[in-house]
Fold this sequence. Notes:
Elements: H1 5-11, E1 17-21, E2 39-55, E3 60-63, E4 72-81, H2 83-93, E5 99-108, E6 113-121
Amino acid sequence: MTYNSDRALSEEPIFKRNVFVYGSLKKGFGNSHILSDSKVISLSAQTIQKFVMLSLSAYPGLLDKPSHKDSSLISGEIYEVSLSTLKSLDMLEGYPSFYNRKSTSCTCKDGSTHKALIYFLSNNPQYVNYPTVPSGSWDKPINYYHPDSFRYD
């Protein structure tokens, strides 16, 4: 029997993972184009576990501290991504040095639940200096300074 590499590749299982996004990757935000080829599972989802959402100026970050006084359920979206898209997300998020990821359970507006990867900030003491987002919902950058808005008068 001979080995047919084309056949072996076509029979490999297709890599798909759900990813929960809560900031600049959400639909309509600056990095959403990275998910343009991904299947939308839900545009209205929420984590079951609590996290602390921080405003890092132009984008949010999560701390995996469910018992912290400022922890809350996080609102976001769920996408089914390919391996190449997951690699692009890892690069954007600076995984594993800036952000880490783990699997978490999420509920959707329709009542369904899904497991999804979620990115959260690596442990770094500097994050205590950033403001929290108690609502757990990133609708727009908080305290964001854009250099184009600066005027010399």
